[in-house]
Amino acid sequence: MRERTLAIVKPDGVGKGLIGEVLRRYEQQGLRIIGLKMVCLSKVAAEGFYQVHRERPFFQSLTTFMASGPAVVLVLEGEDAINRHRALMGATDPKQADPGTLRREFADDIEHNIVHGSDSAESAAFEIPYFFNALELYPAGGS
Ligand code: UDP
Ligand code: MG
Questions:
Q1: Single pTM value for the model
Q2: Whose CA is closest to 33, among 69, 60, 8?
């Protein structure tokens, strides 16, 4: 099914100079970039984005990290985009991630893992409008 998913190059990925590398992989794999912006999240905005994890022990640390510098947020569109993007990212913990995945190649640890991707259609339906309104998306075939 043709899907949309939210991707983020997290502050560590931006800091390491990986914006181009990450976006190149998306385009090379046929995930079309239909929305793109750089944002610097406030702590409150990071907490809102990760509200599903509010009870988890890593919530404070994660949201402080996500508010620590600029991030690049994108909407990707394509066939089975949610799972294909997750496959490119690799497992949350880079030590568990498959060789060749973004996290295995570039991430430092389970928190600083350079990219975010929606994990389901329900997550994407919350996460995409958290950052983009309809006028900020440019689907293939649109003008
Ligand atoms: N995270 C963490 N410690 C953990 C699990 C997750 O710091 O034990 C961070 C990590 O940055 C991760 C984010 O919280 O990407 C969201 O966790 P989730 O389980 O949703 O992982 P993801 O979907 O990003 O692979
Ligand atoms: Mg997740």
A1: 0.98
A2: 8
So what CATH class is 2-132?
A: alpha beta
116 among known catalytic residues: yes
Residue ranges of domains in the chain: 2-132
> From residue 13, how far is each of 33, 73, 106, 110 by CA, in Å?
18, 12, 8, 13
Q: Is 93 in the pocket of ligand 1 (CB under 6 A)?
A: no
Q: What is the pLDDT along the chain (143 residues), one digit of tens a residue?
A: 999 999 999 999 999 999 999 999 999 999 999 999 999 999 999 999 999 999 999 999 999 999 999 999 999 999 999 999 999 999 999 999 999 999 999 999 999 999 999 999 999 999 999 999 999 999 987 65
